[in-house]
Amino acid sequence: MAARGLRCVGVLGTRQVTGSLLYGQLVQTQALAPAEIEAVHSAYVGMATSGACTPDARALLFDEGARMIEHGAEAVLLAGTDLGLAFDGYDPGYPVIDALDLHVAHLVALAMG
């Protein structure tokens, strides 16, 4: 995140990820957790187990992301592989960084290098 010039990001994911602010890995970038950590966790687990995102879950995730943007986040980090079910093909109205894309890019760089 720091390499992208981001000073503050919101983090969406399971309660373990959001409660620990990405396991404490963001040291140069401030991280914000959603206000409704348990509701976000439940929405995430529901998507992960069903393979689909309900309109209510999408609305919750988008709203929590917007709240973090209102509180100073410059982008929202989707810190869970299943969050694409809610965000892919939709515009929440704020910048989103999908951690899955970051992982893939890193693995490609390792394979090429």
TrEMBL record:
It comes from Pararhodobacter zhoushanensis. It comes from the Bacteria. This is Asp/Glu/Hydantoin racemase. The lineage of its organism: Bacteria, Pseudomonadati, Pseudomonadota, Alphaproteobacteria, Rhodobacterales. InterPro entries: Asp/Glu/hydantoin_racemase (IPR015942), Asp/Glu_race (IPR001920).
